[in-house]
């Protein structure tokens, strides 16, 4: 029996080795010297040595220098390497590199030679197409509203809408677009742009119709931060910037540089849309390494950040802090380094980070102090060193003021918004080291050598807030006793004022103290004078305060308040307490006249919508909006009016007020007319319907409802009642 | 307004209904009881004992007999004056809703989608000339074509039926041919209640999508929309005054997760759609509510078994809202 030869064809086909066609490991070197035969060996040796130093050439046939008939070299060399990576590295290192004075090497992948000699590639030069100039839309068009109304953006389900806000009528739609964003929308700090977030990057919208004015292709960017002047934009993504695309046409569009690969934060120029610099995420967070997590600074995340999937690990954001003039930005880059960068070069000031051993936190002054940009930082107690708070001049990185503390568990720095004062809230251990108390250290930046005043409290301060443009402040505190759980209504709300009558000798005094409060949140109206204290938990509550109440001379006891010293320029009155079921967010409008409290489904509320309150705590409007995700007031840029002009307006406020009142009245009557018209129409169509019904029912011998029962002269009259049969019941 | 609170049922209330004169009202509950009360003071007059949970009830215009449907797949009839069971009949699946035609010649029964049975509307010819011995014969079975039926009601001419569906649509069916004349999806979520006006020329629907709609029976197009902040279970038209009352509440399953139940009765203006006021009181979602035929009081029944009877104050009748000066 003869065995038939086994047919292996199928296996051969399956395991056939494909000849290498990609040529990725091959490199062509052009621009090499042309030498006669005699010198070829020497040249080979030189080239092999130079190139082989960087990456090994494949042995034994990796080097091939063609020669012509006469044996002369032709000026180019073919190289083969062991790996693609080696080939790429050689191209990077040697392309356009001078071998000697006369010869410049041109190195490229061998594959590209074939690609570009392909007859399909056109050799004709084509004029690049220039996009015609498209003027930007009016970035501040909403400010030209004749009624001076403010706008707000509302994100409802999948739709983003911008609305004109009115105090006494429903918001009016100015713009609406479905699926405008993948995750959330956010205003730029001066309100010029509305930012939408997409998988491919970030998009800016502006103008009355919010057309696209810029794309920032940072893949899967989750967070953004503008510079205060809106000229620069940070975007952050969890995914590091990947290596550039291989394809040439794609690579040409790739906005980043090789050195950017692996970074997660990109700083963009808003106008040119070009990336200016990239940064690594910088996961260094001093509070993680610090011992006391209870009193850690609350990292102020943007409200928008809450919309992002919360199961992912939070990113420390904003990663950088800006100076108000957008000249500098900085972050704590490592345990001992504060990196301060300068615009527009985006490089470190003096080309190096400031060395501050153990820096925990820093805050830029919100205004220039004596023409200089300052910042305050603090370092904790370590070994034999005291805790310190320092003031630093940013431009020269010199320390101007330096104070030491003992037994400090945590610090927070609060600048008054005009940088006249700085309050350092130092939480310190009591003598038995079991409880905590706070000392408030207030620096006067408006005086020479910045004197410090210390207010030592018995209580631990939870929250502190300067009155905008003022010298008064409010704080929430509680008595931190060991072995005692903080109960709900143990907080103390106190108001402090500066004794102005004593001039420079005046100190801050507690003017009012409201005990047994339940509150954990403070918010000043952006114009000062009015304060809102709130409970932000499962049972939200709002309390409105006026600290310049006319009727009160500062000596009357109001709602448990202590008698205020007469010389203190403060008169606090509680304007009222309001429960606000389901509130998840709250914000004053840019004018500081109205407060919006928002119940968003992102905060798991059962009754989504928003409420508009006036400054005295009166509920003006309540809007129920199903599936409301977010509500943000559109910020306004700083006023361009001069101080004199502003004072003039203040002086003549009554004439202006009369004019505005008249406008309001006119609008109101217009609106009520509109409503009346609508109602009249509804009424008319109903009457027509009933007349029709009555006629038809009449023909059918049926009785319309109007003829059955009526309300007449204060009585219900049943008209239609027929006696069918009378039965006497036996009981 | 001082409510009269009646603990009528030990389990959720399912339907409430006044008789024609409005001197009595009837309630059904999942505890299997069909109760009768005096509208004046809420005193209980009596109880009809059925089997299983009672879902629906209707009374003939002379208040001679009641018809009720129960979860035991049975339809019962009792005489009102002595509570005697005069008739019972089995259905193939649970009868969710019953209603007598205006001329008391026909009975409609809405059955559930259950055990391989398609949700349908059954029409029976009934002869009640001898109350002690009713004659009931099946006339027609109208199978659902789209979404399952929830409730159905006769229109003024007695020749059409308006039916509501689980997907939020409303259909108009010719009761003689059984043909669907028009169907329209008017709610985004399930439509759960349908109540006719006194003369059956227009009706309101209540839906879990937090809205109630008013439609004319002739074209079943949405004429008015009443927006609430909770899913509605029931809506009714007040005779005499131009209001629509609606009630409901968040789902029973999410009651424990939110502190405010808001089991309130909403008052809307029938013509202008404005939300005029609320009336609280219930501790559970309002399952059903209905208004006295003369518009003098209304009753609401809730998931916790309580019934609240509210007689309107004189100020209710004197109050006028936004009616044009020409009216």
The chain-level structural class of chain A is alpha+beta
Strand order of the largest sheet of chain A: 2-3-1-5-4
Share of residues in helices of chain B: under 10%
CATH hierarchy, class of chain B: Mainly Beta
CATH overall fold name of chain B: Methylamine Dehydrogenase, Chain H
Largest sheet of chain B: 4 strands, antiparallel
Report the count of strand segments of chain B. 28
CATH superfamily of one domain in chain A: RRM (RNA recognition motif) domain
Radius of gyration of chain B: 19 Å
**Overall mean confidence score, pLDDT of chain B:** 89
CATH topology of one domain in chain A: Alpha-Beta Plaits
Kindly report the greatest chain-chain contact and the residue count on each side: A-B, 32 and 37 residues
Q: Give the termini distance of chain B in whole angstroms.
A: 28 Å
Kindly state the percentage of residues in helix of chain A.
10-25%
Explain this structure.
Chain B: WD repeats lie at residues 6-47, 279-309. Chain B: InterPro entries: eIF3i, WD40/YVTN_repeat-like_dom_sf, WD40_repeat_dom_sf, WD40_rpt. The complex is a heterodimer of chains A (731) and B (327). By secondary structure, chain A is an alpha+beta fold. Chain A has a domain at 18-117: Alpha-Beta Plaits. Chain A has eight helices and 44 strands. In chain A, strand 34 (521-524) and strand 35 form a beta hairpin. Chain A starts with 8 loop residues before the first helix and ends in a 13-residue tail after the last strand. Chain B is mainly beta. Chain B has one domain (4-318): 7 Propeller (Methylamine Dehydrogenase, Chain H). The longest helix of chain B has 5 residues, at 314-318.
């Amino acid at each position: 029996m003869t065995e038939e030869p086994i047919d292996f064809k199928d296996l051969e086909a399956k395991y056939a080795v494909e000849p290498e066609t990609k040529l990725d490991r091959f490199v062509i070197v052009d621009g090499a010297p042309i030498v006669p035969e005699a010198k070829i060996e020497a040249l080979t040796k030189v080239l092999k040595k130079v190139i082989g130093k960087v990456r090994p050439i494949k042995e034994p046939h990796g080097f091939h220098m063609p020669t012509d008939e006469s044996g002369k070299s032709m000026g180019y060399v073919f190289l083969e390497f062991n790996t693609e990576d080696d080939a790429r590295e050689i191209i990077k290192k040697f392309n356009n590199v001078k071998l000697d004075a006369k010869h410049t090497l041109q190195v490229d992948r061998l594959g590209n030679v074939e690609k570009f000699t392909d007859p399909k590639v056109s050799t004709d030069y084509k004029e690049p197409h220039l996009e015609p100039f498209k003027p930007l839309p009016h970035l501040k068009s909403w400010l030209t509203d004749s009624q001076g109304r403010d706008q707000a953006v509302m994100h409802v389900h999948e739709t983003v809408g911008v609305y004109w806000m009115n105090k006494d009528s429903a918001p009016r739609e100015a713009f609406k677009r479905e699926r405008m964003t993948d995750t959330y929308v956010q205003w730029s700090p001066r309100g010029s742009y509305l930012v939408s977030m997409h998988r491919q990057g970030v998009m800016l919208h502006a103008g009355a119709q919010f057309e696209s004015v810029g794309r920032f292709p940072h893949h899967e960017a989750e967070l953004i931060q503008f510079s205060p002047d809106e000229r620069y934009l940070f975007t952050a993504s969890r995914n590091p910037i990947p290596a550039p695309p291989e394809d040439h046409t794609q690579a040409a569009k790739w906005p980043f540089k090789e050195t950017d690969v692996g970074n997660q934060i990109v700083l963009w120029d808003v106008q040119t849309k070009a990336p200016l610099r990239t940064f690594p995420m910088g996961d260094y967070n001093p509070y993680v390494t610090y011992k006391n997590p209870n009193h850690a600074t609350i990292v102020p995340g943007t409200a928008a950040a809450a919309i992002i999937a919360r199961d992912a690990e939070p990113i420390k954001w904003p990663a950088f802090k800006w100076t108000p003039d957008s000249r500098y930005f900085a972050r704590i880059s490592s345990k001992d380094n504060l990196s301060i960068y300068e615009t527009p070069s985006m490089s470190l000031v003096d080309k190096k980070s400031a060395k501050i051993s153990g820096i925990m936190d820093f805050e830029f002054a919100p205004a220039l102090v004596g023409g200089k940009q300052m910042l305050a930082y603090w370092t904790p107690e370590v070994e034999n060193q005291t805790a310190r708070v320092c003031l630093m001049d940013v431009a020269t990185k010199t320390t101007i003021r330096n104070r030491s503390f003992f037994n400090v568990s945590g610090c927070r720095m609060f600048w008054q918004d005009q940088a006249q004062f700085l309050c350092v809230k130092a939480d310190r251990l009591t003598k038995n080291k079991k409880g905590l108390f706070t000392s408030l250290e207030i620096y006067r930046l408006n005086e020479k050598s910045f004197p410090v005043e210390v207010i030592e409290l018995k209580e631990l301060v939870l929250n502190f807030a300067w009155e905008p443009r003022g010298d008064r402040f409010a704080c929430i505190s509680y008595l931190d006793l060991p072995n005692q759980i903080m109960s709900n209504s143990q907080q103390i709300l106190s108001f402090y004022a500066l004794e102005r009558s004593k001039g420079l000798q005046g100190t801050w005094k507690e003017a009012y103290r409201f005990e047994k409060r339940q509150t954990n949140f403070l918010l000043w109206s952006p114009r000062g004078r009015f304060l809102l204290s709130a409970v932000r938990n499962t049972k939200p509550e709002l309390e409105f305060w006026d600290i310049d109440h006319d009727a009160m001379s500062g000596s009357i006891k109001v709602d448990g308040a202590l008698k205020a010293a007469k010389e203190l320029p403060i008169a606090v009155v509680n304007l009222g307490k309001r429960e606000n079921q389901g509130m998840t967010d709250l914000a004053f409008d840019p004018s500081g006249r109205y407060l919006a409290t928002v119940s968003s489904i992102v905060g798991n509320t059962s009754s989504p919508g928003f409420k508009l309150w006036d400054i005295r705590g009166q509920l003006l409007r309540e809007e129920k909006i199903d599936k409301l995700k977010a509500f943000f007031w559109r910020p306004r840029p700083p006023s361009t009016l001069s101080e004199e002009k502003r004072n003039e307006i203040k002086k003549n406020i009554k004439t202006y007020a009369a004019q505005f009142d008249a406008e309001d009245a006119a609008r109101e009557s217009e609106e009520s007319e509109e409503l009346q018209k609508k109602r009249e129409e509804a009424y008319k169509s109903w009457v027509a319907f009933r007349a029709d019904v009555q006629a038809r029912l009449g023909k059918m011998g049926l009785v319309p409802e109007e003829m059955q029962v009526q309300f007449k002269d204060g009585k219900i009259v049943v008209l239609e009642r027929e006696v069918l049969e009378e039965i006497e019941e036996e009981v | 307004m001082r409510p009269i609170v009646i603990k009528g049922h030990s389990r959720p209330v399912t339907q409430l209904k006044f008789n024609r004169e409005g001197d009595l009202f009837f309630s059904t509950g999942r505890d299997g009881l069909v109760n009768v009360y005096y509208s004046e003071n809420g005193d209980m007059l009596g109880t009809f004992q059925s089997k299983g949970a009672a879902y629906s009830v209707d009374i003939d215009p002379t208040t001679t007999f009641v018809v009720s449907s129960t979860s035991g797949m049975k339809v019962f009839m009792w005489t009102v004056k002595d509570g005697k069971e005069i008739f019972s009949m089995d259905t193939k699946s649970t009868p969710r809703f019953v209603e007598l035609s205006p001329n008391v010649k026909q009975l409609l029964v809405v059955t559930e989608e259950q055990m391989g049975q398609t949700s349908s509307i059954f029409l029976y010819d009934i002869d009640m000339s001898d109350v002690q011995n009713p004659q009931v014969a099946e006339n027609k079975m109208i199978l659902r074509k789209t979404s399952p039926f929830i409730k159905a009601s006769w229109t003024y001419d007695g020749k059409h039926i308006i039916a509501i569906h689980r997907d939020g649509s409303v259909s108009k069916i010719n009761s003689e041919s059984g043909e669907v004349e028009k169907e329209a999806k008017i709610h985004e979520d399930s439509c759960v209640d349908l109540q006719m006006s006194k003369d059956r020329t227009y009706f309101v629907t209540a839906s879990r999508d937090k809205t109630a709609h008013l439609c004319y029976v002739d074209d079943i197009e949405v004429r008015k929309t009443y927006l609430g902040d909770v899913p509605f279970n029931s809506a009714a038209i007040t005779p005499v005054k131009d209001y629509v009352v609606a009630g409901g509440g968040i789902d029973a399953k999410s009651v424990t997760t939110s502190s405010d139940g808001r089991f309130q009765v909403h008052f809307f203006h029938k013509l202008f759609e404005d939300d005029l006021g609320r009336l609280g009181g219930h501790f559970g979602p309002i399952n059903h509510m209905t208004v006295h035929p003369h518009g003098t009081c209304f009753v609401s029944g809730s998931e916790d078994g309580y019934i609240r009877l509210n007689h309107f104050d004189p100020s209710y009748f004197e109050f006028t809202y936004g009616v044009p000066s020409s009216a």
